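For practice. Any example?
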Amino acid sequence: MVTERGEFERLAEEFLLMLENERNASAHTVRAYRREVMDFVEYLGEKLGAKAKIGAVEHLHIRAYLGALYERGLGKASAARALAAVRSWFRWMAKEHKIAQNPAALVSTPKLPQHLPRVPSMEEVNGLLDAMEAGADKKDEVAAWPERDRMIFELLYGCGIRNSELVGINMADIQWKNDAILVKGKGRKQRYVPLGDEAAMAMRAYLPLRESRLREAGKVALVTDGPLVMNLRMRGACRLTTRSVGRIVKQIALARGLASDVHPHTLRHAFGTHMLEEGADLRAIQEMLGHERLSTTQRYTHLTAGQVQRVYDETHPRAR
């Protein structure tokens, strides 16, 4: 027997379908929104009844839901993510005239403490990369595939790309003539990022080995059309996973003396911070990082507060 869906569930499914088809949201984003919105739908069903109408939902119900999340042991960050998904759902319903008013607009976001990530210095990152380059011919005991792993570091730091963007690069995306790489960002948005000399050198050192391994595995078609970053055993489509990249970055960073909290996104933060410290325009950094809003890029102005203080101390006549 098929149970008829209530209005809450039906509208939630319409919203999720819109995210996938119209906004081109990634599968990861759709899964996250489904988890948060459907959890709220279940809560509404318990409080208002399965046959209740969406117009019966008030801002007090949403606030009570946040309270229920805290009772479950969720932190403020997790509750804020849940609220963001619920707000998006109600914004969409208001835009589509499925509700007369948006009750979620009256609910404030939990105030989150600002945790700025610790960014390794230019000297630390350059020291790590130089050590990887020097050790590439000696079969570094830390790196399972030294040439590939050095390229991973050079691309994450040299191009400022996300972990998911790195593993999504295909051979056809590399524009050698233009010294650029086409990357697929959030929301399936595409952008070109500059391919620096060091990253290009690391890539050229890796590519012949990649081709050799593919031919040995009988996967010749992937030589020119396959993913750039390959897994070690040439399994399946041979594409390395984001989880594996995270493990590689952490393992090598720890072995080279960097902090234990280093992960792929740390290198992206380092890219933005170091570019800003060296005088790069904030909007240019925004373009290279693929940030939709400049306010996201402006986080790096806080990360370089130490540098601002040093400049003031060294140059202002009243600071000495």
Remarks:
- The mean pLDDT is 86.
- Strands lie at 174-175, 180-184, 190-194.
